[in-house]
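README: folding subset

This subset contains proteins for which both the sequence and a predicted structure token string are available. Records are stored as plain text. Below is the entry for Protein translocase subunit SecD (577 residues), shown exactly as it appears on disk.
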Amino acid sequence: MNQADLDRATKALQDAGIQVKAATLAEKGSSGLLRLVDQEKQLPAQDVVRRTLGDDYVVALNLASSTPDWLRKLSASPMKLGLDLSGGVHFLLEVDMDKALETRMNVQENEIKSLLRKERVRYRSLPRQATSIQLGFTDTESLEQAQALIRRDFKDFLATTTQRNELQILQLAYTEARVAEIREYAIKQNLTTVRNRVNELGVSEPLVQRQGANRIVVELPGVQDTAEAKRILGKTANLEFRLAATSDTPRAATESFEFREPGRPVVELERSVIITGDQVTDAQAGYDENGRPQVNIRLDGHGGDLMNRATRDNIGRSMAVLFIEQRPVTRYVRQVIDGVEKEESVAAFEDERKIISLATIQSALGSQFRITGLDGQGESSELALLLRAGGLAAPMYFAEERTIGPSLGAENIELGIDASIWGFAFVALFIVSIYKFFGILASIALMFNIICLIALMSMLGATLTLPGIAGIVLTMGMAVDANVLIFSRIREEIANGMPVQRAIHEGFDRAFSAILDGNLTTLLVGGVLFSLGTGPIKGFAVTMSLGILTSMFTAIVVTRGMVNLFCGGRDIKKLWI
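--- output ---
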């Protein structure tokens, strides 16, 4: 991103009648930020900028912080708010199940052909038909031998035979149970990968959960850089390791690929895939002996066996690393709706497969090796991050992208504050009417309790949600419970004829065990809610648990301190309680 791009986008918005409040470029020029006067214009502004800049740029809706400079200099930042209070970004990702089946079948086809070559069974490679692998045989003996080997080692396939001219064709298709298993694995693997990538983004209180058979919902509350989030979450970042084709490789068994680095010639690679990125268990960015960036790869056991088998038999040949990325392409088509011709945008995706490394196999490789030929430290770090977070079992599409504005959140905050004020007022009125002067001290301690709770949440970086506000209101009642136990105990001791100072001392000491037991059981429930709940439920559990700790402190320490301040060391004959 450069200033010229930003100026071009700003001018396009102004020409479209959308007012721009400010346009700023990031320090390193990696992104730009356009602040709008009217928040309701975000969606049409996104469409205008996307049309202007094209598909080479990610145009996302942001909720950027507007903290004044003087507060930033004090290292102050806004409290983290949940999606229901601050707004944020909502993504609905759809997993391409057909691609998951195709990817798995590519690997299995390579293994089957490797087995037939090892057992010296002659066959002919044929183009795949729909979702089945095709192998041709010139004699019945070879066909039966191949069927026996496949039944022994590949039990997930259903085998059928057909005759085409003088060639006997063996068709292999997955069983229904295996298809269902692959689909389930794809959604679970992608769900895990998305969670890991969200953790890499450092988003607090995110929501990542499955929806239906092939969709994943991602909610990132208060995200400042949704463009980065969209880029990391949606990037396939998968790898394929393939052997370079030789002069005697059949033309039908090869594909041509370009290098990511411009100026290098096109290379012919075999269609057979050795391993893919989903068999990578660890990836770390580093440098080789010449100071050039590289990524150190570690494979799982099965991947290591496949890599070793492929390289030990092909020493001296070249092996390429293909980087697979899905690029969004926006097309505009004219449609007639209710007699009115409109131009609608249609989102599509296309695979971009380019070579990032081509090296000669010097010796048999195992489960650990390195990828070189990367374009700078940034690319090596990003590739390592994405592979470390986990490879996608199948590509994902952004079926829905929605930015939730803070307008509804502002109303929720206002209603939450009103509820807290009224709750505090009624609690204070009740306790003052019952316990007179001691009720006033308890109300002061209650106010201090709320201040401590909010300060503690801010220091710990906890996210405040609408259920969290409910937890704050609940904390007020729970905090007063402790004071009620203490004051009732003091009343009982005075009624039994105990001196005032002794009654105060005994009231605080003897009520402590009951307060501790009651709050401890509630704290256990809060821990269960936090461990089993998601999203807003966790927000409620955090607020309630922290509120228990602060209420115990204020009810026992702060209230007792104020009581000792006013009553300590005095000869009091009668107590208003």
